[in-house]
Amino acid sequence: MGHALCACARGSFSIEGQRYVLVQRLGEGGFSYVDLVEGLQDGRFYALKRILCHDQEDRREALHEVEMHRLFDHPNILRLQAHCMVEKGSKHEAWLLLPFCQRGTLWSEVEMLRDKGTFLPEERILPILLGICRGLQAIHDKGYAHRDLKPTNVLLDEEERPVLMDLGSMNQARIEVEGSRQALAVQDWAAQRCTISYRAPELFTVESHCVIDERTDIWSLGCVLYCMMFGEGPYDMIFQKGDSVALAVQNPLRVPPSSRYSAALGQLMSSMLAVNPQERPHISRLLEQLEALQPAPSGQDTTRI
């Protein structure tokens, strides 16, 4: 594991033999915060994610996120540049050095357009969705699921290529639940780690004997696609109003009528948002369907919804 040396007077530190200087705070959550830092050797900007670890379990979870990053070298999955564990008195911080994407998240792009009264056109949605699917395929092919896919966990690089981030909730793709105690444990874990308005129906009330598989990500992907099409997730407003998301996701989603998008794209989204996980496509099938949705030659008519 790398070592960090913080020289607070200069706001500089080193990780794995490379020195960086703090620039500004980018954001923070309940248990972590992200700073913009600059490499003193290469002059490049990076995002430094600092995870607060109060006990051994927190340290274990932070190192799990590190290990998940190490599994992948894929253009659609955020690459871990370096990491270390820093002592802060009786506590620790896990520092993860990550690439900095100046454009920000997919959500910031959707929100900016929505504030202007417009939405992502289909010709922009398709390559973004395709890139997300390729990142998910890499995760699923290694026997894992992301479990917290949402627009704020998708970065866009300078070429608008989507990059999946926040791998801390990743776990094995296939979870065999045997008994009510294990079902409750999985349900409680999902309540803590899977964002409620993008959480698959089967994770709200876990059956005593069932199999949870990677198609929880397909449901979340359907919600992400809905957000790109309509400016917010299908269950965001339900959550904001204080109504029951757990109840809402048990019923088929009503898709608002729109003439902006093809019927095929709407049908693809509906297949992802099937309440029964066994009816959702696997990621390989989605990729096949997306390839078929590539823009038609000029002059060829398409049916819109």
TrEMBL record:
Subunit and partners: Monomer. Interacts with DRG1 (via its N-terminal); the interaction phosphorylates DRG1.
Function as written in the Swiss-Prot or TrEMBL entry: Membrane-associated protein kinase that phosphorylates on serine and threonine residues. In vitro substrates include DRG1, ENO1 and EIF4EBP1. Also autophosphorylates. May be involved in secretory vesicle trafficking or intracellular signaling. May have a role in regulating stromal-epithelial interactions that occur during ductal morphogenesis in the mammary gland. May be involved in TGF-beta signaling. Able to autophosphorylate on Tyr residue; it is however unclear whether it has tyrosine-protein kinase toward other proteins.
Pfam families: Pkinase
GO MF term (any one): ATP binding
Places the protein is found: Cytoplasm, Perinuclear region; Membrane
Matches recorded under PROSITE patterns: PROTEIN_KINASE_DOM, PROTEIN_KINASE_ST
UniProt superkingdom: Eukaryota
GO CC term, one of those recorded: Golgi apparatus
Species of the source: Pelusios castaneus
Alphabetical list of Gene3D superfamilies matching this protein: Phosphorylase Kinase, domain 1, Transferase(Phosphotransferase) domain 1
Protein EC: 2.7.10.2, 2.7.11.1
InterPro entries: Kinase-like_dom_sf, Prot_kinase_dom, Ser/Thr-specific_kinases, Ser/Thr_kinase_AS
Matches recorded under PANTHER family: SERINE/THREONINE-PROTEIN KINASE 16, SERINE_THREONINE-PROTEIN KINASE 16
UniProt protein name: Serine/threonine-protein kinase 16
Record key words, sorted: ATP-binding, Cytoplasm, Kinase, Lipoprotein, Membrane, Myristate, Nucleotide-binding, Palmitate, Phosphoprotein, Serine/threonine-protein kinase, Transferase
